[in-house]
Amino acid sequence: MLSKSAKYATKAVLYLAVNSDKNHKVMVKDMSKPINVPQAYIAKLLQKLAKNNLISSTRGPKGGFYLNEKNRKETIMSIIEVIDGENKLTNCLLGLDECNEAKPCLLHNLASSAKSELINNFRSNCIGDIAKKIKLSDEILK
């Protein structure tokens, strides 16, 4: 359901949430290996997220990417919407344009409640809260 880009972006943001703040910024080259994402790929995703104010960045010798308090209050869904667009999770699983509640495809009713629950979970969980859980559980982001 999620594109590779959305998965990579989410891993990167969660890595930043655990490993950065305004006084400790992370450079792309230092993040690429721990999250197992190619450096050029993650650089483009991070630039897009920064442009949309989901993460923060600073240029220069002490520059890099980080999350401020406002960024930490963003949701997982906000990352997905910036990277994949608003409709990625609501689109038909078969890719049919005419699929909807009134005219469902064969998979529509099978997936509808699961998709709704997933979207609600992504909208109700902020990055900072997930980062706290990661720190408590020593979860690996690889």
- Biggest beta-sheet profile: 2 strands, antiparallel
Task: Tell me the CATH superfamily of the domain at 4-85 and 126-137.
Answer: Winged helix-like DNA-binding domain superfamily/Winged helix DNA-binding domain
Looking at how many chains there are and whether they match, the oligomeric state comes to single chain
Distance between the termini: 19 Å
The total count of helices amounts to 7
State the name of the first-level CATH class of the domain at 4-85 and 126-137.
Mainly Alpha
Strand order of the largest sheet: 1-2
Q: In angstroms, what is the radius of gyration?
A: 17 Å
Helix content: 40-55%
- Helix/strand/pairing category: mainly alpha
Q: Could you characterize what this model shows?
A:
It contains seven helices and two strands. It has 142 residues and is mainly alpha-helical. It has a domain at 4-85 and 126-137: Arc Repressor Mutant, subunit A (Orthogonal Bundle). It has a two-stranded antiparallel sheet. A hairpin with a 5-residue loop joins strand 1 and strand 2. It starts with a helix and ends in a 5-residue tail after the last helix.
Write the layout of secondary structure elements.
Layout: H1 4-19, H2 28-35, H3 39-51, E1 56-58, E2 64-66, H4 69-72, H5 76-84, H6 108-124, H7 127-137
Antiparallel strand pairs: 1-2
Protein traits:
142 residues, Arc Repressor Mutant, subunit A, two-stranded antiparallel ribbon, 55% helix
Task: Briefly say what this structure is.
This protein is mainly alpha-helical and 142 residues long.
